[in-house]
Structures are given as structure tokens and as C-alpha cells.
Amino acid sequence: MAVSATPSSLSTFSSLSLYTPPPRFSLFTQTQFHSLSSTLSQSLSTKLKPIKAQEQEQDQEVTITDQDTIFFTNDDPEGVSTFDPPEIPEGFEPPPSFDDGPQETEDEIAAAYEELYGPAYSGVSLLGNDIYVMDSKVKKSGALGKIKKEKVRDGFDERVIQVRRVTKVVKGGKQLHFRAVVVVGDKKGQVGVGVGKAKEVVAAVQKSATNARRNIVTVPMTKYSTFPHRADGDYGAAKVMLRPASPGTGVIAGGAVRIVLEMAGVENALGKQLGSNNALNNARATVVAVQQMRQFSEVARDRGIPMEELWK
User: Fold this and answer.
1) Beta 238-244 vs 231-235: how paired, if at all?
2) Which of 101, 247, 267, 271 could form a disulfide with 225 if both were Cys (CB 3.0 to 4.6 A apart)?
3) How far apart are the C-alpha atoms of 59 and 79, rounded to whole Å?
């Protein structure tokens, strides 16, 4: 019985395995699905045919018309090609070499730097004096190897107004520095006020002198070495009053105002500090008052009248 039942069961299993029922939740029957797939394939083939035909036509239309391109395409890539330079025309003169030309002067180099990067990079102040001479002329002095900078020789004298110790609170404690206020002037109408800080007094004075040379102003004066008119200036809480004086009066002023006027070359003037007693602010207030002054010739030129009519 067992032997006879085995082939029948195998035939039944084989017939069941070959049967594939339709999908349970399909919207189309099996015949409808086959017809739909055939229609989609036909539509896609009809749409792709013109695209392939267009691509073939474009490939056929592309032709090489440029003569230079034809010349390079005909070359053998594996062969050895030689370059034939064009003939030199008659009367041709080669340009001079860069090294053969005239050497540029320091003024031309400074002007080029100033045109590209501004006056701060040219190293020339408003008066044409070199403010980086101290950095260029350095020499070692002593066995310790400290660098000592030479004094600038540009016609300006230096006067120290004030040197103070200043501290800065940091994470590890306090850092001690020195702040110096210096006035530079040529005693011919040019004066400048500068301030600088450093760990040493000498370095602080040098920094402030360099800063003062970058802030030079012109003091208008008459032939009697006095101011043309009155002027008042203030900087912060400091206020300064300046008045002209008759010949022989001298400079009657005190503190930073007196030093600024003497370094500018003023011989007869009256000055008074009306506000704060801070030396730096009073010096800068004096510079502000001087910048407000104008010569009589400048006023007459701006008004378009002769200078004699200013006193009528």
C-alpha cells in the first residue's frame, strides 16, 4: 500500500507546485495584465524610436570644419612631432630685460607702496620724514646683548611730559608697565603729541615718540611768533584757552600747554587750563585748539576778498 501510494502523492504534489494562483488583491485579471503590459511596451518602443533616430542624425551631422582641428586630428599620436617657430620679422627688436632697466629709487618704491597699501606702509609721515629710522638703525650694546636703538635725526626735538606706572590685572596677577607722553616739534610750526606703553621706560618713550611723529600738525603763527587769533579747545574733560600776545611777552602757560607751545616754536602767547589737570588730555586739547586757527590769508582767499579788507 505504501509503495502504491507514493507515486500518486508525488503526482499530486507536482501538479500543485506548478499551479500559480492569481494575486489576491489584483485589480486586473491575468489576461488583462498580459494585455496591459504588451501595450505599455509598444508605447515605450514607439516613443524611444524617434529619440534614437534623432541621436543618430545628430551624430551624422557633426562634421569637422575647423582647419586647425583637422590639422591636429591628422597627426599621428604615437609619432614624434617637431615644432617649427615662426620666422622673426625684419626690424624686430627684443624688449629689454627687467634686470637691465634703471634701478628704482627708495622714493619711487615708497610711493608705489603708498599707492597700493596707503601711507602707513610707505614709512613716510605727512612731512616726508622717515618714522621707521629707529627700527632700521639698531645695534647691540653690552655683554647682555640688549638692543639699543639710535636716536632719530629728522630735525624734531623730543620732550617728555609725563611717565607713569600703569598696571593691568590678568589671570595670574598684575602686570606692571610704563606709559610715557612725549611731544615732538621742530620749533618752526610743526608739533605732535604721542603716547606709548612698554615694560621699560626707554621703550615707552621711543614708542610715544614714534606715535607723535605720526600725528604732526601745523601751528599757524604770525611774524611775531604768536597766534593769529584766539582759540579754545577741549579734549575729554580738559579745556584749554589760547590767546595771542604782544612781542616780548613770552609763553605764559603751565603744564602740558607750555611744553606743546614751546616745541611748536611759539614765543609770545597766553594759555590757560580750565578743565581737568590730566597732562595727556591737556596736550591734546592744545592741539585741537591750534587746529581751529586759520591764517588771515586763508580766510581772505576763502571769502574772495583782498586781505586788507578784513580789518575794515
Assistant:
1) antiparallel
2) 267
3) 29
